[in-house]
């Protein structure tokens, strides 16, 4: 397991990762994006921004970096950064397949990404990822598995994924939607030749969406590394959008709402890596303060009141515009 590298790391931020969803393409659903990125979102401008954030994250102790085929040019930007820094050999690199980026570097596309968990898509995207990241890729995840995903039942696909695992690649999956818990439990049951196929799970979990928690506990107990995405609820937990209870607790800690929101997740015993999706260096630095946040029982109780019904949460997420 490549995540053993994180176990030997000693920096306070080694269990905070950096995801490239928000910076490797011009359009995304995060709130406040116009202020974060401004008007110039050319390929080279975002390449430079991504590299600066990767440098800053690594310098501040981050050791997991997360991309996807559908995150615009995330794999390309990450590959460029890795080639320029051959001495960076203590990180874990993850990517995902299953969505194809279709926005053609615009913010107003009719469809920004198209989902397909079929074997043909895996074969095509695996080759595309290999061309860019080569042997620097440690983890390859099925992107956004839901309970009805054919990836959970396609034995031929399972065989191909097991073949990749036998060659040294860690195989995982991510989840999304109100039935994340069911998807996680279904994936935990997938075996090839009697052995569990998946070694990692990446799920949405934050102060507003906690429904996957029990299933993530089960995944952790089964030996999977748990990666948490969307800890900031696509900006809903950041200033100035954060709920009053979060703002109050943040004021008591003298740190940002974002640091408190991410610290809440870091406290979970099953949380192996919690992703920052920062789009600016200031956001990244503030996110990484999560490692220093200490919350007492009263503060935790107040924050626990923020959880929404998962269907309500995902309906609101689905209505967020691409900026």
Rg over CA atoms: 18 Å
Number of helices: 13
Content-based structural category = alpha/beta
Total beta strands: 12
Strand content: 15-25%
| Bulk shape | globular
Give the neighbour order of strands across the main sheet. Answer: 1-2-3-6-7-10-11-12
Protein described:
- The chain is α/β, with parallel strands linked by helices and 323 residues long.
- 40% of the residues lie in helices and 15% in strands.
- The protein is built from 13 helices and twelve strands.
- The protein has an eight-stranded parallel β-barrel, surrounded by six helices.
- Strand 10 (200-204), helix 8 (213-221) and strand 11 (225-229) form a beta-alpha-beta unit.
- The longest helix is centred in the first third of the chain and has 17 residues, at 43-59.
- It is globular, with a radius of gyration of 18 Å.
- The model has no long low-confidence stretch (mean pLDDT 97).
């Amino acid at each position: 397991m490549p995540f053993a590298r994180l176990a030997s790391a000693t920096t306070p931020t080694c269990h905070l990762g950096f995801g490239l969803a928000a910076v490797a393409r011009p359009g995304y659903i995060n709130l406040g994006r116009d202020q974060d990125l401004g008007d110039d979102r050319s390929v080279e401008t975002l390449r430079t921004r991504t590299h600066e954030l990767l440098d800053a994250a690594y310098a501040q102790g981050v050791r997991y970096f997360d991309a996807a085929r559908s995150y615009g040019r995330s794999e390309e930007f990450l590959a460029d950064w890795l080639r320029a820094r051959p001495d960076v050999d203590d990180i874990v690199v993850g990517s995902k397949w299953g969505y194809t980026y279709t926005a053609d570097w615009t913010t107003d596309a009719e469809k920004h990404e198209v989902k397909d968990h079929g074997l043909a898509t895996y074969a095509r995207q695996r080759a595309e990822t290999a061309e860019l990241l080569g042997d620097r890729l440690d983890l390859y995840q099925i992107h956004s598995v839901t309970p009805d995903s054919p990836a959970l039942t396609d034995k031929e696909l399972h065989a191909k994924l097991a073949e990749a695992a036998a060659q040294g690649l860690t195989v995982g999956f991510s989840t999304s939607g109100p039935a994340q818990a069911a998807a996680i439990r279904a994936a935990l049951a997938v075996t090839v030749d009697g052995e569990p196929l998946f070694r990692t799970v990446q799920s949405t979990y934050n102060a507003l969406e906690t429904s996957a928690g029990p299933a993530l506990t089960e995944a952790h107990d089964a030996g999977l590394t748990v990666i948490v995405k969307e800890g900031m609820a696509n900006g809903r937990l950041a200033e100035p959008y954060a709920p009053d209870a979060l703002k109050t607790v943040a004021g008591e800690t003298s740190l940002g709402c974002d640091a408190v929101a991410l610290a809440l997740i870091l406290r979970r015993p099953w949380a192996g890596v919690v992703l920052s999706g920062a789009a600016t260096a200031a956001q990244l630095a503030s996110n990484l303060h999560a490692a220093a946040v200490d919350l007492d029982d009263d503060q935790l109780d107040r924050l626990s009141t923020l959880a929404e019904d998962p269907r309500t949460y995902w309906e609101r997420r689905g209505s967020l515009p691409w900026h």
